[in-house]
Design a protein that fits this description.
The structure is a single chain. With 99 residues, the chain is of the alpha+beta class. The chain has a single domain, classed as Orthogonal Bundle (Arc Repressor Mutant, subunit A), CATH 1.10.10. Strands 1-3-2 form a three-stranded antiparallel sheet. It is elongated and about 55 Å long. The two termini are 12 Å apart. 17% of the residues are buried.
């Protein structure tokens, strides 16, 4: 059981980061406002968790102007997708071991 816990990725332990990656796994690019609304979090909370995931190279950031307004969008990197899939697989093993 202990070895299963070691397989979990500590970067996805927080519910917001788990939510961010879940949203990014099923969408190509998601803008900041849509992510904020989907997860029902504050600007600062979302920004800090995104920064942490970006630091791990799990998310890619695209900043641009749309109709002269700044727009920030995110997507999961290949590395981020792999890390998240591995985390989900470890969770599944942990759940199955408890039966």
């Amino acid at each position: 059981m202990k070895e299963l816990l070691v397989s979990l990725n500590k970067h996805f332990e927080n519910r917001i980061r788990l939510g961010i990656m879940s949203v990014l796994m099923v969408n190509d690019w998601v803008d900041f406002s849509a992510m904020k609304e989907t997860l029902n979090v504050t600007d600062g909370n979302l920004a800090s968790h995104m920064k942490a995931l970006e630091g791990e190279r799990y998310v890619e950031v695209k900043k641009q102007f749309l109709d002269k307004k700044p727009n920030t969008s995110y997507r999961a990197t290949i590395e981020g997708r792999k890390a998240f899939e591995d985390h989900l697989a470890a969770l599944e093993k942990l759940i199955k071991s408890g039966r």
